[in-house]
Design goal:
By secondary structure, the chain is mainly beta. Helices cover 5% and strands 32% of the residues. It is globular.
Length: 196
């Protein structure tokens, strides 16, 4: 799995321009336990990923980090424009891929896919899956305008808590904040390697 930040210019929002950046992330391959489920509530590790870009809570669990040498949190390891993070994992027919990484200019939004089938029968999916990636509001912290919130990681920590189910953001969130099309910011691809 390769996740590349393809933003070629700053994102323009209502209050001005901001840089599109993402945290390191986590990819899970499973038949029935995705990393997150829209409509459910974010568990503690997912909340840490979405509010602080901290994927370290998943180390030692099912799945794989991207980058593969994950050793830091958002403050130390960000996916900036023109950079690529890679995750490696094993999969067999019936498995689904779910993954997420924090959208840095947000309070608790991840870019990811909830449950993408890796196989069509016995044939593995290979190629671009960017169109399957979306922004998801984890519902653990009140949203501020992307790129300009006082409680977003670039400017502070610990926004106003909330307890809402995970929802996909399409254009604007429930508070009316505008988000760019994630496909203009991230390129996500799958490539298979045979084990010898």
């Amino acid at each position: 799995l390769s996740v590349q930040n393809i933003a070629t210019a700053p994102v323009t929002g209502p209050s001005g321009d901001y840089q599109a950046e993402f945290s390191a992330g986590w990819a899970r391959v499973s038949v029935d336990t995705p990393l997150f489920v829209p409509g459910a509530f974010a568990e503690e590790r997912l909340a840490a990923l979405g509010t602080a870009g901290d994927a370290l809570g998943y180390v030692g669990t099912e799945g794989a980090p991207f980058p593969t040498d994950l050793a830091a949190t958002y403050a130390d390891e960000r996916l900036l424009p023109a950079q690529t993070f890679v995750a490696e994992f094993d999969a067999s027919p019936g498995a689904q891929l779910s993954f997420g990484c924090m959208f840095g200019p947000s309070n608790d939004t991840i870019a990811g896919a909830a449950a993408f089938p890796l196989f069509d029968g016995n044939r593995p999916f290979e190629g671009d899956l960017s169109s399957r990636v979306g922004f998801y509001d984890l519902g653990v912290e009140e949203n501020e305008e992307p790129g300009f919130g006082a409680n977003q990681p670039a400017r502070g920590t610990g926004g106003t808590p909330e307890h809402l189910p995970i929802t996909r953001i399409t254009g604007t969130d429930a508070r009316g904040n505008a988000y760019p099309d994630v496909a203009t910011l991230l390129s996500v691809r799958l490539e298979w390697k045979r084990k010898l």
